[in-house]
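FAQ: What does the model actually see?

It sees only this:
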Amino acid sequence: MKKLLGVVIILAVAILMTLTVPDKKAHKEAMMKAIKEYVDEEAASMGIGDNGLARAGKNVVTKAIETILTSKLKETNYLLFNTTHIQMKEKDQLLSVGLFGQVITFNKDMLRKALEEAAEEKAEAKAEKKRLKEEAKAEKKRLKEEAKAEKKRQREQEKAQRKAEKEQRKAEKEQRKAEKKRQRELEKQQKDSND
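And it is asked to produce this:
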């Protein structure tokens, strides 16, 4: 009888766990609450007051983190409980565990590390984007210079061709002139020999 009671209790707990697994939205809300508390504590420890500008800055940080969570947060359901994780530096980082309708979130050190890694990834992405932009700019400049050099080469080639044609016409003109002169001299010699 005790064994049967134990099995029934275990089954009841398993069914209760299955029915009370929190959804992804509950995980995200719990994490955002923890993030907001963390940002507030960090701002207080840095001596940043609670004025309008500080609140705006905190909201920007919180929204940026929320955007990252929205795009990268993945949920894994194990039937009795579930977890959420995010991929950081090519490895999955556990962020929260959900069971019995509750979400247990990460600790602050893990959050600090995750934020630092996110900032580092963002800086790396920005540097990579800048590098690619500079490479594209250099390639565009190289292609432009090549096109300019090709255009210059074509102009010089056309100029040389025109010059060669002009010299050929000049030579032909000189040749016709010399031919006419020789013809006149022959005619003059014939005329002189006839006289």
